[in-house]
## 1
Amino acid sequence: MELLKTFRLGAELAELNAAGDEIAALLEARGAETLPVYAARVALEELGTNVIKYSYPGEAPCWLEVRLSADDERFALEVEDGGAPFDPLQAAAPDLTLPLEEREIGGLGVHLVRQLMDRVEYRREDGKNRVRVERRLRE
């Protein structure tokens, strides 16, 4: 896959939104259909929000790096951060059969990313969390 763009973002949701807009435009230029573009935006928002909210303890400066790669058939997003070790794939899937008021808070975003993507991987390497998601550009 060809690396299309690297983003280095701070702990601002507005930065995630701006990166999401640019990622959507880059994928559309590669011929991506609506659902894969939506899936990329959801993955960036959910994974990035988890980093911003949970990965950095105390007053540590929060950052994340996002890399978008693609070829003619697929795209990949890799989200990297230097925060505390956290493997989102170890989170239990939410019990969607329970009424909303009985469900535990959290876990739905990661579940959604798993459902929207063809592949989701986590690794801890060189003191960094790396989550990589992949999906087809077209259905």
## 2
Amino acid sequence: MGPTKALVTGARGFIGGFLLKRLLAEGYEVTALATTEPNTQYLRDMGIQVRVGDLTRPESIRGMCQGADVVFHLAARVTYWGTRKQFYDAIFEATRNLLEESAGKVGRFVYVSSFCAGGPGGGGKHYRGHKEDDPEFPTGVFYGDAKLETEKMVYGYHRDGKVAATVVRPANVIGPGSVWVDGILETMRKMPRFPIVDGGRYSASLVDVDNLVDGILLASRSEAAPGRTYHLRDDYDVTWMRYFTDLARTAGVRLRALPLPFRAAWSLGLVSDRVLAPLGIDTHISRQIVGLIGRDNDVDTSRARQELGWRTRVPYEEAMKAVAAWLERRAPSTRSVVHPAR
């Protein structure tokens, strides 16, 4: 047999870049979907085949899945604000087009969703201990709702025998290039005071990107995985306040905290989502952000550990060292790196 052939969407994104490197290291033959031709040469230099297409335009992805053994679907709108149409076009409609193209052609379909599909980041509930099969409902926060509806669609194709599908739900992913690194640091630098909901006392519910890629690959190979959903969250004992403090220290940024009670922050997020986001105004606060930071979202991960053999391989301190090294490489002359306190 030849090498396993993998198609990766979202290949130029944060998680996609780490997944590509691991697939190549393990001998996969990889095709990456790119929405535009510019800035793809580095992928070809890595030995990756590049297919240019837009998942929201079915005609542009015709034949893309032919011959693929496994599809890793990561492409999505990955941000905390926007309109319903923006989220559903980039998540739900794009996935439907990819499923149609994959039907009857691929061995495995791994959909990288988010634990927000189960509720975290939406409403005012705590989700500690939430399991994959617990009752789940739309919350009114577009990102999580789009993910939840998309998961249901993926499993519809699975039940109909069109694809053998698995859903992976990462928690808050950290690592070089993460929105929980770049986005947070940008907000710290731009805003005079950095809002921290309820004092940042709850668990940050983090997963390191390398640990996440471990789980994605295990899910693509396990005989138990088709038809199953897996939460992936590291067992770090790290609150949001500790993470923000460590990240600011690592980047050489001063953390000027603005404590916000949950209810006040939620009200601000509601105004931002319903009034300002449709106007294209980013306030750096939304209900999704408030729900992720201001509630305990340590979802249960026992299924991934028991069925996939997944575990936290990279500890928190090592994950933050990787972030520090990346920040230093990116701007060595403007920063001094201090590793996070243990």
## 3
Amino acid sequence: MSQIKQCQVLVVGAGPGGYVAAIRAGQLGLKTIIVEGERAGGTCLIRGCIPSKALIHAATRFEHLAQHSSDDLNDHMGIRLTEKPKINLSQTIEWKESIVNKLNSGVEGLLKKAKVELIKGWANFSDAKTCTVKLSGSDETISIKAEHVILANGSSATELPILPFSDNVISSTEALNLQSIPKSLVIVGAGYIGLELGIAFAKFGSQVTFVEGQDRILPLYDKEMTRPIEQWLKKHNIEIIYKAKATGVEDKGFMPRLAYENAAGEKQTITAEKVLVTVGRRPNTKGWGLENMCVDMSGPFVKVDNQCRTAMKNVWAIGDLVGEPMLAHKASAQGEMVAEIIAGHKRAFEPVAIPAVCFTEPEIVGVGLTPDEAKAEGYEVKVGKFPFAAIGKALAMQAGNDGGFVRITACAKTQLILGIHAVGAHVAELSNQFALALEMRATVTDLVQTIHVHPTLGEATMEAAMATFGQAIHS
């Protein structure tokens, strides 16, 4: 007979949405249990955001060292290596895993500090408030009854029937654990996951080719924003086959062969050491009893309102399970909000904008409306743009020669900032300032009159604001 536990709040999934919800619920004095089938931290910490950024950082360091060892290098910093650097990817992966392990332990420590009980196992619901958990590494089960259930089950890489995963046809999860650099890599999909990993492996020395179904990369961003990334790809001889449809793969022997149709409808093939499939992610709705919970669906996602309530009373859903944008920081914000609502606080999920960042080369960030989107919504628009090439800190970091800039979209009548977008080295670090400006309903004048530290990359934000008046100082 299985053990029976009762709690006020049961959280399913210890990713960035689930563990934040559980910690906040614990802080608010709610008896909370969180169930996780794998390791605390979820996709973002264990096999997504954090490990990919570690790999991207290592790849960038390696590329910089390789540049300083070139015989024909004309580098004004005066740094020169006497021999070319070498990469041992298995050791890089060990280093990456040490970061993951540290953060995993940190999350478990935070849960414990908040008096949240962590149960490691797979939950299966028999009704909306009751689940049975098969404990990891054991035949033992635990039954849990809860007053409130927060579903934070996350998402998984989409597997195409025509491109089944194997040793040579892989998802981002396997790509982040490769033990050697593939000499050649074909990536199906030139969205943010594919581009981030493709650029990293290109820096390590792989010959990378993208097969993309649309006529452009990163459709979330307009073409002005993606142009510096396209220029980097071209400079590094990375081919993108646009308007191409993958039709299958022959995975026999060492080198898989990807079949596709090009824009003209012609059948083509391309051979590579690995085929990486990055065509998106799907919510984890199967295999844990969702069908027994009487919640409504919106396409493949669980339907929720602006407080993340489902159709079933006291059952909540957050993060990737409830739809786009499938971003860790959205999930965390929703998790914190739901815990506070359960505790009696008045909250709703009504952000003005959710920042989206792509850690490509160079990085790209968008918050709010683009100029075209603002015009489509009826705004008379003013746009200010300022290049990092005119920012001293960027030049000192050798980060001002990548075509990067900050662009501000504002309402011409009220000066209200409608959107801020940027592309360039390290611009991800500016995204929080951008989001704050929109959330606080800042005007262009607010940014102009905020004294920005010199020398920093953030000065480009102030100058872009001034540029909307035609008054940028340093251009």
